[in-house]
């Protein structure tokens, strides 16, 4: 069962939640310094983390699982949030250049189907950033936080899930080295905890974070059992953002050749 949006919002309004937000956001911004003129999608509870890019993206959409619920985002203009079924995302094929998944994977009914859908809506060479609770970390044991619910992952499991869905991992990191307790000693010194944890207990960050690139062809080194065909759900009632930056470039090249 998914954590309800009210609990997610309440957590990120607490001192511990605000500290967790800062620790995760710092890693996201290090991997994605900017998203200028790109089409960006978040799946799960990503609106808090998209605020840093909202002014520069070509389009940003927050997709929230129906079982979780959603809040309107951004608050200052028309909402760009939509409720979705995780195995039937209401978007056309190959439209998003960046996809952020946070609080979206651990409670998925069928992670493989979710990943196939994310692959489908990703543009050629799109990049996906997965944030998932680390099975080896303390946060996956803390039921008082959203990271203590659902299915935590090991690096090996997350790597296998991505490769099966035809995403090639390119960068790994961790965050949330501070213990998941609401003590001022922790919440007021989150940055110090992060820097110490990166050195002293490197494998025990509360969340795993991995960036991966969409592949268009199956790697011949992947065993046949993992070479699964990407299923495409029915395209009824799809939301069609304007063509992505990659699509526009490809169409321009085609017109040049025709001319």
UniProtKB/TrEMBL annotation:
The lineage's top-level taxon is Bacteria
For this UniProt record, give its keywords in alphabetical order, as a comma-separated list. Answer: Methyltransferase, Transferase
- Which residue ranges are recorded for the region named Disordered? 226-259
Which stretch is the leader sequence? none
- Which molecular function term from Gene Ontology is one that the record holds? S-adenosylmethionine-dependent methyltransferase activity
An example GO BP is: methylation
User: Where in the numbering of this chain does the Methyltransferase type domain appear?
Assistant: 87-129
Where is there biased composition of kind Basic and acidic residues? 242-259
Q: What is this protein called?
A: Methyltransferase type 11
């Amino acid at each position: 069962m998914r954590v309800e949006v009210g609990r997610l919002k309440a957590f990120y309004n607490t001192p511990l939640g605000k500290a967790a937000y800062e620790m995760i956001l710092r890693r996201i911004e290090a991997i994605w310094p900017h998203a200028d003129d790109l089409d960006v999608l978040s799946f799960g509870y990503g609106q808090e983390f998209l605020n840093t890019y909202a002014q520069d993206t070509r389009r940003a959409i927050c997709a929230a699982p129906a079982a979780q619920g959603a809040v309107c985002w951004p608050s200052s203009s028309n909402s760009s949030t939509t409720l979705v079924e995780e195995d039937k995302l209401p978007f056309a094929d190959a439209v998003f250049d960046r996809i952020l998944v946070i609080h979206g994977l651990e409670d998925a009914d069928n992670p493989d189907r979710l990943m196939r859908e994310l692959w489908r809506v990703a543009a050629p060479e799109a990049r996906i950033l997965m944030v998932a609770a680390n099975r080896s970390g303390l946060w996956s044991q803390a039921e008082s936080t959203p990271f203590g619910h659902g299915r935590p992952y090991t690096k090996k499991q997350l790597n296998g899930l991505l490769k099966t869905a035809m995403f090639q991992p390119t960068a790994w990191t961790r965050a949330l080295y501070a213990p998941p307790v609401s003590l001022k000693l922790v919440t007021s010194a989150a940055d110090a905890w992060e820097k110490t944890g990166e050195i002293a207990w490197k494998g025990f960050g509360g969340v795993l974070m991995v960036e991966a690139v969409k592949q268009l062809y199956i790697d011949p080194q992947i065993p046949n059992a993992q070479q699964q065909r990407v299923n495409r759900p029915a395209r009824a009632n799809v939301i069609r953002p304007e063509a992505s930056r990659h699509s526009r470039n490809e169409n321009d090249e085609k017109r040049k050749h025709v001319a």
